[in-house]
Design brief:
heterotrimer; A alpha+beta; B alpha+beta; C mainly alpha; A: alpha+beta; Ubiquitin-like (UB roll); Fumarate Reductase Iron-sulfur Protein, Chain B, domain 2; five-stranded mixed β-sheet; two-stranded antiparallel sheet; 9 helices; 37% helix; elongated; C: mainly alpha; 7 helices
Chain lengths: 246, 639, 223
């Protein structure tokens, strides 16, 4: 298989950056997208050129490091997966593949396809936790939780913090990410204690960092590799409202 | 030969840890603020240690090579986390958990440490639950359990197939809380290049800022390594592709002994390698063996579609060989049995290096819905990667490098042989002996970080309160930084033709073939030579484009691979030295007529702790004799 | 009204409350307009128009309505500017995954409606001010302004009808996304009821659009 790669190249955070187009003919359909990039980088290195820098780590769809905007979609055109699980069998021979970094003011590009997602950490630091000291926890089964709530909290908690929601949103809004964490804790009795402060602090931080506003287009949900639901956003809207009026 | 002091407290097994805690020295809150601690790694061990130490009031600096602490590879653990809660009333207890681990580890783990981790396991579950980790529950609202390989009770807490993710994100949250309070400072995208020793104590680290390329010095009163295992030495493994042993290896070269490096767990249920470009093997949780049945065709090279092979022509070899435990035998046993079947020609798939894991019976009996509820996300993952629907057709699985029981030697206080240098989680050797049982690594890492290290490190730091902040302009820092910079220059100056990854692949192949699931003297000796040759080639023909003043992922990889060559030699040396089969270490020369592992307790019931003697010099072996006072040493049988 | 003073969520609440409020206004407006169709004598319509124009409560309420429009528009513009600022550099190739195409263009459909609003109000008030409105000659409303006739005359102009129809199509697009979006922003999302709300949103958008559009078309072709 042969593909044309149109890749965003940018030396560092300050550099201007531009698209470069390459032809790469050593593509096998059973490669994952990242393995194709590995092979392509090997070719660049043997040609004495600098390889394309990109974030990746676990390569099993759970760490959230990989972050490529491929052919107009975060994590590529197949829904429900991360870039590391994207297989080259989904591309046609001779196809031009456009690869871009996540684009958002809050996610500045550091090099090539690597962006700085520390804004997500900052939102979590603002309040995405339960303030329980080590050693202070009660017996685990002394806090009964309805299966329904536990399951829903789990569904919210599987977010991998990759930032695809921000990348997908036409407004670069981080609502899906923030609301998933707010929801997880809001659904559990352990998290209710600090629910009000948590949602206020996390939303304030999110606004501060320059993410856009939610206009309910639901592109985030459609592009989320972990199928985080926009019902989380509604729940956060409720939580924030009741926090503000109480 | 120096005698290793494991500092195991006196007293009855069940009271050792309480006695230790009662007698341990404390640091008063005002003094804690004046003490700095460096924690390397943000997995379950590192993040839990950093947050627990931050809570106590120490000044913690936490490092990780990822862009965010949340990405550490604990996130990928699937199946569950053990605790001796006995919520099922099925006969579990702290002692039983301890016993299962000792037996599972094939009597090569330290009794006192294992008992202690079993003891704190219940606190770990309490803590995670209070932190909002959404473990699976039953309809009464209580926590649910499932069983895992190698044991006969249900003691595993789980969050679908993403328990590691949930535990790690819970711990990431506790870490964030401390960052918000200012007790922990987070340094992400930093990779440790060396450990700095001042007057015989660990006093700091030299790190490379992976964005700017800057070499930074950081000092502290104590250094904690929580850097995980070295499974990526095989190149293909279930680990994150950037996981590495460099920090632990640097510590070893600075004087920390490395224990049992050849004890590497090969996980039996990974998706098999599909092609040569592959960069990673994906695990299918061991919990699948609760309902899945493993088989191969009874005839060699049977190329029929699995669904067309009738029941009577299937060999459920684990159930046949181990009727008592069946598909739930420990990982090492299951892995070797799969290898044996494939080596003798019964393997399936295009490569013949795979066996079937079949859910047909479970689906028929419990219904598709029940199976989907338990394993839905794993089935989906399998489907995405292989294109095969496991609801319709059996999974193909094969063993893959997974977990390293070996690691830095630590005493009861989790302190290495360098005073002030601690190692926790997978990076130490302590609790799993020669084989780790499923769902006990999440337990150990978080137990180490949350509930053990905070006591033992305080005991060490109580003597350090008069030492002011360590200056980073000391000559030791100067020297360490110089060495680090020289090595980077040396790597960049090679300007050869081959990539670091290509060397890594070749190294991995050698290690997998000769120092993997089964080993023999001839093969190990051959491998030693091959590794040496490859290492020389590496230092002559490595290609790294770009320079060190920017993000340079090739330079990062090269540094890790360079360290792996040296570690590979030590692994082989250790495997050669251990002339017995135990746990995951299977020496072909030492087996029973039925092909089971044959231990040699008289000569090898010890921890092999290796001391670095210099480049290309034979390392010095120190033996920590293992004494079993509270369990009877038996032949490990799962029949 | 920067982020410092009102959080993004508060702004969304304002948008939603006012949006839903404006939709109810549209319903009232539509029902009055429909009187022109059902009653050829225009008496009902004129009576209603007279009531709207003179009732003190309505007169006060009119200002509430104006403010609602103004704030809805202002907040909408602020949100949009922030959204543009949140992505200073766009993608070379983007395939939007928005659930509805209309959700992408709310600011544009909103702007079109705003332009119409200005023309509509200017038209209406200008006519009133100049006193260019014909008087009703017979019946019990004799002597009053024949607003109905004014409208009828306008809707006999082909160009105006076309313009009106197009504008209301855009209003329909705007409302189609707006209705369920308002509920979502207010946190009202429930697996049982949300499908109904979404359905109701499409229904409302269609009813309002078809309703408003039908009037000029019927007048132009059939009256």
């Amino acid at each position: 298989m042969k593909v044309k790669l149109k890749i965003w190249r940018q030396e560092n955070a300050e550099a201007k950056g531009s698209f470069q187009t390459y032809t790469f003919d050593k593509v096998a359909p059973e490669m994952s997208f990242l393995e194709m990039m590995d092979a392509f980088n090997t070719q660049l290195i043997t040609e004495g050129k600098e390889p394309v820098a990109f974030d990746h780590d676990c390569r099993e769809g759970i760490c959230g490091a990989c972050s490529m905007y491929i052919n107009g979609h975060p994590h590529g055109p197949v829904s429900g997966i991360t870039t590391c699980h994207l297989s080259m069998r989904h591309f046609k021979d001779g196809e031009t593949i456009t690869v871009e970094p996540w684009r958002a003011k809050a996610f500045p590009v550091i090099k090539d396809l690597i962006v700085d997602r520390s804004a997500f950490d900052q939102i979590q630091i603002a309040g995405g936790f339960i303030s329980m000291n080590v050693g202070g926890a009660p017996e685990a089964n002394s806090i009964p939780v309805k299966v329904k709530n536990a399951d829903e909290a789990f569904d919210s908690s599987v977010c991998i913090g990759c930032g695809a929601c921000v990348a997908a949103c036409k407004n670069a809004s981080a609502m899906l990410f923030v609301s998933a964490k707010v929801s997880q804790f809001a659904l559990l009795p352990q998290g209710r204690v600090e629910a009000k402060e948590r949602v206020e602090k996390m939303v304030a931080k999110m606004d501060d960092l320059g993410f856009g506003n939610c206009t309910n287009t639901y592109a985030c949900e459609a592009e989320c590799p972990k199928d985080i639901s926009i019902t989380n956003i509604a729940r956060m809207n409720r939580e924030f409202f009741s926090a503000k009026v109480s | 030969m120096t005698k290793l002091n494991s500092k195991i407290p006196e007293g009855p097994l069940a009271q050792k840890w309480s006695l230790y805690k009662q007698n341990a020295k404390l640091v008063n809150p005002a003094n804690k603020k004046k003490l700095d601690i460096i924690v390397v790694g943000t997995g379950l061990a590192g993040a839990s240690a950093a947050s627990a130490l931050g809570e106590l009031g120490y000044n913690v600096k936490n490092f990780c090579y990822q862009d965010s602490p949340r990405r550490a590879h604990s996130v990928a653990a699937q199946g569950g986390i053990n605790a001796a809660k006995n919520y099922r009333n099925d006969g579990d207890s702290i002692y039983r958990l301890f016993y299962d681990m000792i037996k599972g580890g094939d009597y090569r783990a330290r009794e006192a440490n294992v008992y202690r981790i079993a003891e704190v396991s219940n606190d770990v579950i309490d803590h995670f639950t209070a932190m909002g980790v959404p473990f699976a529950r039953d309809y009464g609202g209580g926590l649910d359990n499932r069983s895992f390989g190698g044991v006969q009770v249900s003691r595993t807490f789980y969050a679908k197939g993403q328990t590691g993710q949930q535990c790690l994100l819970g711990t990431y949250a506790t870490l964030n809380r401390q960052v918000s309070k200012g007790t922990v400072t987070m340094y992400s995208r930093r990779e440790v290049q060396d450990i700095v020793i001042v007057d015989g104590r660990a006093r700091g680290v030299i790190v490379r800022n992976l964005i700017t390329g800057e070499i930074e010095r950081h000092s502290a009163h104590a250094v904690v390594l929580a850097t995980g295992g070295y499974g990526t030495i095989y190149y293909l493994s279930t680990l994150a592709v950037n996981s590495n042993a460099s920090a632990a290896w640097k510590a070893h070269k600075k004087g920390a002994y490395f224990a049992n490096p050849s004890f590497v767990q090969i996980h039996p249920t990974s998706i098999p390698q599909l092609n040569d470009y592959q960069s990673k093997l994906t695990l299918m949780s061991e919990s699948l063996r609760n309902d899945g049945r493993i088989w191969v065709p009874k005839t060699k090279n049977d190329k029929r579609h699995p669904n067309e092979i009738p029941e009577e022509e299937r060999d459920y070899y684990l159930e046949r060989r181990y009727p008592a435990f069946g598909n739930l035998v420990p990982r090492d046993v299951a892995s070797r049995a799969a290898k044996e079947r494939c080596d003798t020609g019964y393997g399936v798939g295009s490569t013949g290096l795979a066996v079937y894991l079949d859910f047909k019976d479970a689906i028929n009996k419990q219904g598709k819905k029940a199976i989907e509820h338990k394993y839905g996300n794993l089935f989906e993952l399998y489907h995405i990667i292989t294109g095969i629907d496991p609801y319709v057709e059996p999974m193909r699985i094969y063993p893959a490098g997974h977990y390293t029981m070996g690691g830095l030697w630590v005493d009861y206080e989790l302190q290495t042989t360098i005073p002030g240098l601690f190692a926790i989680g997978e990076s130490n050797f302590s609790d799993h002996g020669a084989n780790r049982l499923g769902a006990s690594s999440l337990m150990q890492t978080s137990g180490d970080g949350y509930f053990i290290l905070p006591y033992t490190i305080s005991n060490y730091l109580a003597d350090q309160i008069r030492i002011p902040h360590i200056p980073t302009d000391a000559p030791e820092f100067e020297e360490a930084e110089k060495v680090v910079k020289e090595r980077i220059e040396k790597l960049l100056a090679i300007k050869g033709k081959q990539t670091a990854t290509s060397f890594h692949k070749r190294l991995g192949r050698i290690m997998w073939d000769y120092c993997g699931m089964s080993r023999n003297e001839e093969g190990l000796k051959k491998a030693f030579g091959l590794v040496k040759e490859l290492e020389q080639e590496f230092w002559k023909d490595l290609a790294i484009p770009g320079d060190e003043k920017n993000i340079n992922q090739e330079l990062e990889k090269a540094g890790r691979v360079a360290d792996y060559f040296e570690l590979a030699e030590l692994m082989i040396t250790d495997a050669l030295n251990r002339k017995e089969s135990c746990g995951a270490h299977f020496r072909e020369e030492y087996q029973t007529p039925e092909g089971e592992a044959l231990r040699n307790d008289d000569e090898y019931m010890y921890v092999a702790a290796w001391e670095y003697a210099g480049k290309s010099k034979e390392p010095t072996l120190h033996k920590e004799k293992l004494e079993y006072k509270f369990v009877e040493v038996k032949v490990r049988s799962y029949k | 009204m920067s982020k410092k003073y009102y959080s993004s969520l508060t702004k969304k609440y304002i948008m939603s409350f006012l949006g839903l409020f404006l939709m109810t206004f549209l319903l009232v407006h539509l029902s009055i307009n429909l009187l022109l169709i059902v009653d050829d004598s225009r008496e009902l319509f004129n009576e209603a128009a007279h009531f709207m124009g003179t009732n003190i409560f309505i007169q006060v309420f009119q200002w509430v309505l104006f403010s609602a429009f103004a704030v809805h528009i202002l907040v909408g513009v602020i949100l949009q500017i922030q959204n543009w600022m949140a992505r200073p550099k766009g993608y070379a190739r983007r395939v939007g995954a928005e659930e509805s195409i209309f959700s992408r263009y709310m600011i544009y459909t909103g702007a079109i409606i705003f332009i119409f609003l200005v023309i509509h109000l200017a038209d209406f008030f200008a006519n009133k001010m100049i006193g260019d409105v014909p008087e009703i000659t017979s019946g019990n409303l004799a002597g009053m302004e024949d607003m109905g006739l004014l409208v009828m005359e306008k809707f006999k102009m082909g160009g105006y009808v076309l313009f009106y129809v197009i504008i209301f199509l855009f209003l329909g697009f705007h409302l189609d996304h707006a209705f369920q979006s308002a509920f979502q922003s207010l946190g009202l999302n429930h697996p049982k009821y949300t499908p109904f709300i979404k359905g109701l949103g499409h229904f409302m958008a269609i009813v309002l659009t078809v309703g408003f559009i039908s009037i000029p078309i019927i007048i132009y072709f059939f009256k």
